[in-house]
Amino acid sequence: MEKYSAFGLLRHALSGHRRWPQVWRSAELKPNYDAVVIGGGGHGLATAYYLAKEHGITNVAVLEKGWLGGGNTGRNTAVSRSNYFYPESTRFFEHSLKRFETMGRDLNYNIMFTQGGVLSLAFSRHEMEIFRRWATAIQVQGVDCRVMGREEVSEAVPLLNMSPHARYRVYGGFMQQRGGISRHDAVAWAYARAASSLGVDIIQNCEVTGLNISDGAVRGVQTTLGTIRTSKLAMAVAGHSSVVAGMAGIKLPIVSQCLQAMVSEPIKPCFDHVVMSPQVHCYVSQSDRGELVIGGGADTHPSYGQRGNLPTTESVLNAVTEMYPAFSRLKLMRQWGGIVDITPDASPIVSKTPVNGFYISAGWGTGGYKAIPAGGETLAYTMAHDRAHPLVEPFSLARFAQGRLVDESAAAGVAH
Amino acid sequence: MIRIECPWCGLRSESEFTCGGQSHIVRPENPAEVSDEIWAEYLYQRENPRGLHRERWRHTYGCRQWFNVIRDTVTHEILAVYHMTDSAPEVSGGRE
Amino acid sequence: MNQTIRRLPHARIEADSTVEFFFDGRRYTGKKGDSLASALLANGVGVVGRSFKLHRPRGILGCGTEEPNALVQLESGEYTEPNVRATLIPLYPGLVAKGQNAWPSVRFDLLGAVGLCKRLLPASFYYKTFMWPNWRSWEWLVRRIAGLGTAPQAADAERYVKQNIHADVVVVGAGRSGLEAALEAARDPAKRVLLIDSQEEPGGRLLGSPVPEERSWLANALSEVAQRDNITLLCRTTVNGYYDNNVLAALERRSNHLGPRSGNAFRECFWRVFAGRVILATGAIERPLVFPNNDRPGIMLASAVREYTHRYGLTLAREIVFYTNNDSAWQVALELHRVGVKVDAIIDIRGAVDSALVEGARDAGINHYLGTRVINTKGRSGIRRLKIQRAPADGDPSVQSVESLPCELLAISGGWTPTLHLYSQSGGKLQYRESDACLIPDCNNQNISVVGRAAGEFRGELNLQCQWLTPDVPPENQWVDFQYDVTAADIQLAARENFVSVEHVKRYTTNGMSVDQGKTSNVNGLGILALATDREIPAVGTTRFRPPFHPTTIGAYAGIELGALYKPVHLLPAHKAHLTCGASFDDYGSWQRPVCYPKPGEAEAAAIAREAVAVREAVGLLDYSPLGKLEVVGPDARAFLDRVYINNMVSLKHGAARYGLMLNEAGIVIDDGVVVCLAEDHFLLHTTSGGAAVIHRHLDEWLQCEWTDLQVVVNNCTTQWATMMLSGPKARDVLQQLDCDIDLSRESFGHMQYREGHLLGQRCRILRASFTGEVSFEVSVPARYGQSLWKILMQRGANMGITPFGIEALMLLRTEKGYLHIGADTDGNTMPQDLGWGGAIARKAGDFIGSRSLSLPVGLDADRLQFTGLELLDPKGQTISGAHILSADERTTNGYVTSAVHSPNLNRTVALGIVAGAAQRQGEEVTVFYDGLRQRARLVSPCAYDPEGNALNG
Asked: Between chain A and chain C, how many beta carbons pairs sit less than 8 Å apart?
């Protein structure tokens, strides 16, 4: 793998940038792999990378039905944070956040992780109580988090509606300063490049059509490019988890829904943090390119249509305008949708399954992007050892029958 | 935007309705006697098909009645609307 | 560029008018009917913007929504708007605009120096650098340079409205094809036809036509449209989104053409269009040709040259040259000549061109160069010269001849791209037509058709010869996306690095990601990618178009639903009376309720304490109307309630009240409240305030979807009744002052009893329950009497010291008593066994909602968080809800404080919480943690005040 650096850029400039190597190899599908990962998004690519890097399993294929990172990896609002309520969640996401902090150097690919801070706003007394409980939970776990009063919030977000005519009064909020945003495509490409250089075959435009299972164990995968033999198979196909798991005869506690994201036209920097609010439901940040990146709740019915409906767009932008009256005259440039897995407790499922050698990473809900490094690392571990990584033990498929849900909203009254 | 023919009120936009998810889920007849696994399946496991989905909707900002719908989850096309107590009709079409 | 002194006579502007406007601080004048772009061109302003990355000077390229370059900051303060296309702003008097993304100005921009480093800044260079020492060290700089215009700092001074409109046929675009389609559809008088056009006036390309027959055709068609009762014409309206079921979103600009402070009630209207059938007549957008330094100001689309000449009457330059690969530009050149505008030359890539065109050019004295390419342009702030290269007749490259031509305006045409954004949004697939090198409609599931140029019907052959980029010359300065500085070399680099999917190329190079969303750059990018990867265009594929077609004002999506209209506000029936009493209000759920009634100068906490003391010592009055009131009626009502509550409801007697707990199917406590039996088949359920709608829905779903055999109806009566809570030792004395036919005596109307009767001659319902720990009467009267009841109670109670109290005093009192508040003292994991209800569950015979879930393994855990009181060891200590109880090693949470108040009646902090295994740990000491502070506390019974309940039964 050629090392990227300012010097390298200079050197390539002299040759007119005509000698840059491929970021990842174009690989031919082989008939046999030690491990196969279905899904060439961030999670799938990270899994392959850690299989090769941490566990020495390099005869690995990543199968992507479209283009790399074309699912939710390329459709989210690129927020990373670890301000979770339950220790199970915080431990996992804090691990992931730390990986984000060093990913640029670790993978030699600048993912442009800007740690502007993630601020959650409270719009009622009750919400503020819940936020204090939440923020304290994070502090107890040793993660940075600060409760802010109304004045502090006003200073941090000068464009916030503090007028007496606002529908809801801002009571305060809490901030995780280390949270922030990065370039989502870059994360997929960085893992693809690193995995490929370790020998992983990345196969695009290869759709899985069936699984070969006999005697309760995985034997192989059928794809549009042919059948592959393998005894370790993982799926990381957010949005389509039920479809692929169904091929193994496994029914999941998941509903697919469309989550929209949108961006305004680019403007000069005016918004430093990621600001979210459960009450006036939207979240806003500003990308390095200057666009306001906006998200909200998922569309309210099951869907596999990657587009998003008008009522949700309206309600998200209504919230944005109510919270930031100055943004009213900005223009929405692009809106799109991704299909997310919604689990009953809005927590992920990283788990072995009843089928030997078949592993799933699913149920990431609206927050899968920030989990990419830890999700890949733990899934790779689980595949390599056929035993759940300690970080994902609480997120097994079996937890539902025990009633041991890890429901953040139950504790904090707030969706992910 | 999804447009739904409420069996009581006629054609309306989706913003008047609430989707209640999968329909025809059978509650175990005697909950005390089923295993934890069966109970959890009833509580949490869902069909979640890519294609035709039998689901229930409520006309929340209207007659407040629940009814069943068969809808394509890819195109969002509605292929049938029927009463809560009716069994699902056979439909053809949809993308999948 | 030329300054136009006199407009051409056939222009659609008012030649005698003078409209003053300002650009970059300079005063100019234009004409009524001008756009800002045409007015700038009339004044010879060539440089109007700077590109995003390299700050290259940018001139006007197009004449409409496709414009990638002429983005300006319009107006200032609360009226300012960034990134406005100069081509789309009708000129109005006093218009003030500024160039963007430049310092100090677009004409002279110091940041243009970035362009000198161009070689170091290929596509996505940032992913390969800025890693040392870390990204943070560079980020501030990169962020500052990025972005285009400036966001407003003040709230928008104008308002927006949203409207629905239904039509049988919706025609998008009122050019020739759209008008024809609308008139055709309107022949059936029963059909409602909606014709939508985005320009200032309908007519599409006909507005830029110099041909008299075409102009009169337009006039006739428009008058016919006006005469048809069944056609509605919406002008200045851009259809931006195409959703499922033929629902379109369109934005009408109501007052932008008048400028700010127009006096219009609404600046823009957001239309939701419900269409039976949609006909897209959205036209086509001309493509630039890709050649070295094709981005200089003075290089303009041929279609734009046509528009500026004929519609606005401008003579754009002295030396006008055309460069094309198809016939359409020849027509434009000949039309220019016909109205007296001199065209110097036509350069055509094609070796052979239709003889009629060639003869036309010869007759017009226009030089033409066939089989010739532009291989470079020269000029500082605008184009001055062209370098052209004639291909040799026999194909021998050694004899190519290079020539230099003077040129002040270069009109370019690389073919046409049908405008199919809406078609693609609707789910339609596109197919590639080789002959015209364009994408045309293929198939679609919705009821939609496409006509005219949008369908690739160009009214005459284009005879196009494809050239995606100029061969044999360096690709580094052949621009594809003018706004984001994407060159052909960038696309080739992406392909070289294995970004060969069209989506990857878009994301890697940012081609088509700029404000215009690739309207002029997408197809050229596609072609270059196809060449770079040695594939056919259909194999490369296209990116999906996303809404909106044209960037859409964010405030328009909100409409009027802002401030008080953002979410409905529930006001209490006695709201005005509370105002009179000096209440301070706050949001509690959807209701605005009195927090407390502070006296002048009294702090909130002091007021709350005073109110709470008054309730304990005399009597308080609380507006309790939001208390949820559901009526459950029917022969099976009792059986239903027995399945809904974990308590036994079978034995509840007429007139009696019973506290009940409700679970969801997962066993989680979702509500509590007092259930009253009104009759054998009629019950009144009280839910937590704000919970009424949710619980109503919950019960209804079970009845309608699961237990369809039960004959029961549930109705939410919450807002039909105003409920006043009289609470305190003197509560009965106050109530007895009023004429009431209910025996209120202690003996006949005890705690947890319910009576109906008449109060002051009106129906009333009185419940004796208590959330304060004092004797309480919850008196409900029809909502319309709420205000008068409040006033009368305040009057009659005055001599007994009646004190109005707010929600916060109520919360203080119930915390003193340790009364559970669902949602505050419970969380989404709380099961009844955590609240001391384990015994009751065990005793209950039969199934109820959630019962099976209680025996899942999680329900049996020893460390479940359980409801408890907390007493701080330091009698002066304070804590706050949200504080945590730490585990013995202080590393994890063991629970949290859910309610904490300073009790004025006990003169110490009283706290409630949920703590792991609290039921078995009573008396144990624990550590309470908040904001770095640790305190010791003891787990105690929740009830801190009057544990014997003497006050309650008084």
From this structure: 317
